[in-house]
Specification:
By secondary structure, this protein is mainly alpha-helical. It is built from five helices and no strands.
């Protein structure tokens, strides 16, 4: 009878270890996928900086002068990198907040966020992405003391227009 209990306990331990290994393997794979996707995104953004003709695909950036378009792409690259790092746990919520506050310390960073926040919110397809976006929104509010309107109500109100 005791032998059966020992055998059962050993089998349960082996099964539990196997399941834990599968869960951790899946998480590592997901993290590698996020980081590889971020790397590809960064390469695409870098190509736009190196070859200005590639920027034509972003019609919404047409009204910006060339210097502001470059800064727009560069800001987007940084924020996308922070989001990827946050997703895999390499950047904490406090780290996101600090980085975002540094970005928002310049008026141009604030204007950039007002311009892109709705699109970035729509792109946040899961809970982790929505949490990252909320952290960015909180940093904006902390820097400006302004609560932007709920997404979908228009950004003109946020500028007081």
């Amino acid at each position: 009878m005791r032998g059966n209990r020992v055998t059962t306990a050993a089998l349960l331990t082996i099964a539990g270890t196997g399941i834990a290994h599968l869960v951790l393997s899946e998480r590592r794979h997901r993290d590698r996928t996020v980081l590889e996707s971020a790397r590809i995104h960064q390469q695409l953004l870098a190509a736009q900086v190196e070859r200005p003709g590639l920027r034509a695909i972003w019609g919404s950036l047409t009204p910006l002068d060339p210097g502001e378009r470059r800064l727009h792409v560069h800001r987007n690259a940084w924020v996308s990198a922070w989001e990827a790092l946050y997703r895999v746990g390499a950047l904490s919520a406090d780290g996101v907040h600090g980085a975002a506050c540094a970005l928002f310390a310049a008026p141009e960073g604030l204007e950039w966020w007002v311009r892109v926040r709705e699109e970035r919110a729509r792109a946040a397809g899961d809970e982790r992405g929505r949490r990252f976006h909320a952290l960015m929104e909180a940093a904006y509010q902390d820097e400006t003391g302004t609560v932007l309107p709920t997404l979908g109500t228009g950004t003109a109100q946020a500028r007081g227009q």
